[in-house]
Amino acid sequence: MQVAALCRDESGKVLLITSRGTGRWIVPKGWPMPGRSLAEAAKQEAWEEAGVCGRVEEGHIGTYTYDKVQDAGYSIPIEVRVYPLAVKKLAMEFPESEQRERKWFMPDKAAELVDEAGLKKLLRSLAVPDGSPV
Fold first, then answer.
1. Total number of domains in the chain
2. Would you say residue 131 lies in a domain?
3. Of 20, 35, 60, 128, which has the fewest beta carbons less than 10 angstroms from its beta carbon?
4. pTM of the entire structure?
């Protein structure tokens, strides 16, 4: 299992970042961390991967799965629990700032850009039919 942060601003836009390996659009995610709740681990990943400072909620808002390719060439299925994070500010410099791009999107557009079906569904649930944030 991994944890992810769904980072949103006051207008309802979501922040996507590029993966380091393939450059695909994703949300910040990583492994649980000893001594931190799952939500706090998601918040830490948002800082390291996207430079996000904000408030995370302890309850996850959904899950999705993806196949994580291992160094040996095979892949394993991973369940990702997604935690909402209200973005207060973005740092210009952060641990992975030289390795990733980040960009704001309306939820429906973000859903078009990510590959994982479950994440697409979660992002689409954040928008009303006219494309406005909920």
1. 1
2. no
3. 35
4. 0.91
Give CA 31 to chain center in angstroms.
13
Range of the domain at 15: 2-124
Distance in angstroms (rounded) separating the CA atoms of residues 30 and 80: 9
Tokens of 34: 């000893």
**Cβ count near 40 (within 10 Å):** 16
**Max CA distance (Å), the chain:** 45
Q: What is the pLDDT along the chain (134 residues), one digit of tens a residue?
A: 999 999 999 999 999 999 998 899 999 999 999 999 999 999 999 999 999 999 999 999 999 999 988 889 899 999 999 999 999 999 999 999 999 999 999 999 999 999 999 999 999 999 866 544 54
Mapped onto helix, strand or coil, the DSSP state of residue 25 is strand
Q: What is the CATH number of the domain that holds 44?
A: 3.90.79.10
The two three-digit tokens of residue 21, written as one number: 């390996």
